Amino acid sequence: MKRINGFFRGAAALAMLMAQAGWANEWSPPAGIKQIPLWPENAAIARPETTGEESYRAATSPVAGRPWTRIENVVRPTMTVFPAKGVNTGAAVVVFPGGGYQILAIDLEGTEVCDWITAKGVTCVVLKYRVPGGGPYGLKMPRVPMALQDAQRAMSLLRERGGEWGIDPHKIGVLGFSAGGHLVAWVSNEAKRSYAPVDAADKQSSRPDFAVVLYPGHIWDYEDNHFQQPANGLRVTAAAPPTFILQAQDDPVDNIHESATYYLALLKAEVPVEMHVYAHGGHAFGLRRTDQPITQWPALAETWLRTIGMLPKTP
Q: What is the dihedral of CA 84, 89, 91, 95, to 10 degrees?
């Protein structure tokens, strides 16, 4: 018992040191908001190659004068459901935070979307998918497409259980930033399920009904420097859903060719697509308003959602 007590005293001391250094253990949503495991306990899912346990902390580079939170070493994926407020439209948006498939910008490109979209009567679901290495990085495909598996599983699970939150199974879309934008394109176009079904939920479709892609990466083949074919084996087909794309031309992280490549591929496949390009705006602004006009993009997205019937038309 003495040894056990010593272990717990050591663990408490370590937790205190981590807190003082700005680190904490697994991320949790705000009080009253439900976080749901994506997979049954007995499901054999791949584990990312991590250097430690899941933790989160404030990033060192503020956005629009405010800090943001980064999650590292996600091995237990979850979806966090923020119910619609006011009149429920039946629509839902699954949000894929960015982070280069290495970390997740869980608030900047995750929960802050829910602050906006739930006020429009839309259920918002933040996906905490497996990182690091859950998807393409540069031009390298992962041995196991963990991020895609998590995205497909979240879509199927929502269609199976969506009635709990008043979700119409035919009005479930996806929205993602940066690497999350690539994940949107990936789940929109992947015809086959990337894992063996684990339960009844996996009988449901894993394709979204609409898609929002914001300053995406990993789509343009920068080595060949052309727009003929998206990179990383992304095969764009006519089965992709109506899509909204937005990016700044001066994005220093993901070149504007990323969005242009995807736009042209969707156009070729005759998929309804709307693209907005701004001369300035940079990268990783999320929904935080600055003096750059691009940061007013949620108003453009709302108009588009009305045109495709996901939000009620204004009088």
A: -30
